[in-house]
Each structure stands twice: as C-alpha cells, then as structure tokens.
Queue: 2 jobs
Job 1
Amino acid sequence: MLGSCRKIDTLGRVTIPKEMRKKYAITDETLLSITEQNDKIVIQKAIPTCKLCGSEQDVDESIMVCKRCSEKIKNQ
Ligand SMILES: [Zn+2]
C-alpha cells in the first residue's frame, strides 16, 4: 500500500496531504512527534504531557501543566 506519494525536499521536509491534515485536525500550530517504529518513520500528533508529573490527563497546553498539578500549585 503506497498511500499518498510525496517527494522530500532538499531541506528534508515533506508535506502531509491536505485531506489528512483536515481529518486529524493538524494545523500550523500542531506539534507533531516523529519517531521510529520497526524501521518505519511514524509521524503523529504529539500528546501534551505535564512538565511536572508527566501525566497525559487534562493538560493545559498553554502552560503544559496538568489540572492536578496546577491545583496543587494554587493550594500551596
Ligand atoms: Zn501534572
């Protein structure tokens, strides 16, 4: 299965097809994570994690802190 074929440019950039960007709600603000998995390059939306505890739950992306930690800070 080839899917959509794109050439990589001289700077190593590749364009993600518009339909896929739309489907996955990827905008010019979206942080993507690029990893290797079994000899494949995997591009996925980066999951925001709390910079204090590493939790993926209820993370406020503007401060990158989860709800639990921000409440803990407020109550100190
Ligand atoms: Zn946290």
Job 2
Amino acid sequence: MKHVKCEICGSDNSNAVCSAKCPDGTSRENFIINKCEICGFVFVNPRPDKDEMRSFYFEEYYGKPSRIMKIVANSAISVFSFLRKRRIYKYKKSGKLLDIGCGDGVFLNYMRARDWKVFGVETSESGYKLCEQKKINVSKELNFQGESFDIITLWQSLEHMESPARVLREIHKVLSENGVLIISAPNINSMEYAIFKKFWFHLDLPRHLNHFSVATLKKLLQKSGFKVLKTEHCSFEYNPYGLMQTIMNTFTPEFNFFYKFAKRNKTQGKKFILNMAITLPSLIILAIPAFFISYVFSFFKRGGVVHLYAKKNS
Ligand SMILES: [Zn+2]
C-alpha cells in the first residue's frame, strides 16, 4: 500500500470519508477513500501499488455471461453502444476514434462496423486479449505519438487510472484541434452515494481509485488544458441499473451478486440459491421505481454517473 497526495491540487491534507472492502471478495482489506480538504477531490488513500492492483483485474473480470443472460446481455450491449454512438454523433459522424479503457472491445467493434477507424487502450490482460481476438488495434499503453483523433472516449475508465492528470496530458497530445473528449464517470456527488455510502455500486474499491464530482472533474480538465463544452447527467446505460444494484447490495448476502452473475456468469458461489431467491423478486419490484427515481436524481444533477464533453483550449 502506498500513500498519495491529491491528484488535482497536490495537497497532502485529506481526511477519510468512507471505507469498503473489494466487492469481489478479492481481498479482506478495508479500503479508505479520502476527501482533499483544499479542492474536494475524493480518492483511495492509501492504495495498492501497481503490482498489487493487478490481482483486482482477474481473468474473469471481462468474463462471458451465461447462455440465458447472453441474449439479454447482447441486446443491452447493442442499445448501450447505440446510446454511446448518439453522444458522439452530436459532434462528429465519422473519423478516428480512440477508446481508453476499452474493456473487451465491444463498443469499438460496433463503431468499426459504422466505418469509424477505431483504436483502443486496455491495460487489463483479460480485456486486451478479447480485443485482440476481435482484431481491434489495441495497445496496453497510451502511446499514439503522431496520431490525431477526432473523438477520444473514456466510458467509466478514468476513475480506474492511477494518475488521471497524466492520462489527460497524454490525451491532449493526440486529440485533434477540433476533436472532442467524452468522459463518462461515476458521480461521488450522487444521491446514491449520499444515501448508501459503502453499498454504492459505483464505489468499487480499490479499482475506482478516483471519485469525481462535476466540480473536481472540471478542475482536472481545466488544469490539463481542456475546456468543458457540456455536462450531462442522464444515463440509461448506467443509472437505473446502478441504483437497483446499490439497493440490492443492502440486503443480499453477496455484494453485486446479480451484476457478477449476469456479466461474468461467476459469483463467489456461497449461498447462491439464497442470493438468487432474494435477487429475482427484487429485480421485478425495483426495476420501474429505480428507473424513475434515477431520472429524478439525474434531473437534480445528482445521478449515479456524469458525462462531460471537452475540447482542447489551444
Ligand atoms: Zn486537492
């Protein structure tokens, strides 16, 4: 474990605001998030070093869903990819796209089929291999010197980065003059976190090293040479399910049980039947209320995730 200073203002003056264990049971350690007393940025401190972090991105992290869930998962992926494409098309309808933290590459695959030239960065071994299988131009490092991208996206990945400021500096070098950077990240200023704290689906310690609010993300972007064009709070892709899973985390024996079952077809295995017996009726009861409540939260700019669009200052 190593101690870090605030990434945004460099201050060493931060205090613990919440603690939680890794939702996958990968470690028994209780991880702590601190809030910077100077700028309000929230981050994991102390945190595992680079080698220790690898164990939290295990082989099944981007696993395959079960056969039953595959139909649901594939439909969801198509809808979510379409919604991401719509966010991009507000600015550009063709060109070169770089997705940083591209995971298993499904979104890049979708955009490539729509004539975009696609590139990805993925540091996890499991995600990297899945991108290679799809023949996506993927790299483990953000080194595209000499390239110039029209759109650069980070869908729920900046919160994973050891140094988001360094990543933004690198992005600044490869984003074209009229290019647009789209960042989607969990919102620590959300009602979900305010109410549920350690049960929040998007807390995901220690993988989510950085916990942004709109204010701190804007500060970081401005410091890195970007101008924020727009902020959006509604997200059908992340908010309704995030709220539902957060609520279920307060009463199911296993944390993120349905998420792990649906996405990876791999749960911790203990009390599987009990977890499932609690989860299935909860999904039916919670689906519609969670949908509406998450939109009310978003309307008041307190939804589970935020999207920021930015371009270079110069
Ligand atoms: Zn700070």
